[in-house]
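Hi everyone, sorry if this is the wrong subforum. Our group has a chain we'd like a structural model of before ordering constructs, and none of us has done structure prediction before. Sequence below.
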Amino acid sequence: MIGNGKWGSNYKNTLLRYKSIKVSDLTPIIKTGYKTNKLNSLFYNLKTKYDGLIVATPSSKQNKILIEILKLNIPVIVEKPLCINKFELKNIMKYKNKNQIIYVNHYHLFSTSFKKFKKSFKPSQVKSIFIQDGNFGPFRKNLSPILDWAPHSIGVTLNLFKSKIVKFHYSKKLIEKKNNIEILIIKFLFIFSNGQKAFIKVGNGFKNRKNKISVFLKNNERIILENNLLYKDKKLIQKNEPKPMDNLLEEFYKSIINKSYNNVSFNIAKKTNSFLFKRVI
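Answer:
Right subforum, don't worry. Here is the predicted structure as tokens:
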């Protein structure tokens, strides 16, 4: 583990339930190497001691750490956003090995309910989709709420729809700005070449937690994924068990053991970040 804040603790507590896995907190060591620019030699020594690494640091720190991990082809999980600007993305693509085991925690991709949600309709049946994802916070000086919240929802949209985007629009409503921290509600509209539409509303300016995906089908049926519970026309049809983090760690573990390379979450993160850097940021 690298990073012992909220998400680092979540990873660690989840991993402690697995008797066959040993987890170590490397945060103090990596902090020292980060400050003294000795990350390369540190990770070189760690490569022989650990089967994989989980990076749960602030987004502003993640890239420098990730690049050194990629250089040594060490299996890794990182948080979204994958990076915070186009130069970091270019650097990641420069050092990523084609057989690199890298997972990005886009939690919908590892949700049991989301997987069943995707199977409950064909993309051609969809008329439109509405996604709302946000909270009151987090409030970060070094990360825009757009990068904090939009990658999940745009990632879901790009994962579900493969048609060409023919029209895109976004707007943001500033709720408050204080000490270089923005509190925003951001809206996105996607129109695809086949006429399908996606509406997204995200940000850190909601009064409370919002997490809902509504799909409107051409036959007027509605399928909803809300807080990892799946509904069809208001009837509950799937509870999410196990949790997305358990699924993510299970897939990561199997990838290391089997030396398999699942690039789905990385490709979605790359595509999402590239889209945001080109069209929004």
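For your construct planning: The CA atoms of residues 107 and 244 lie 6 Å apart. The first strand starts at residue 53 and ends at 55.
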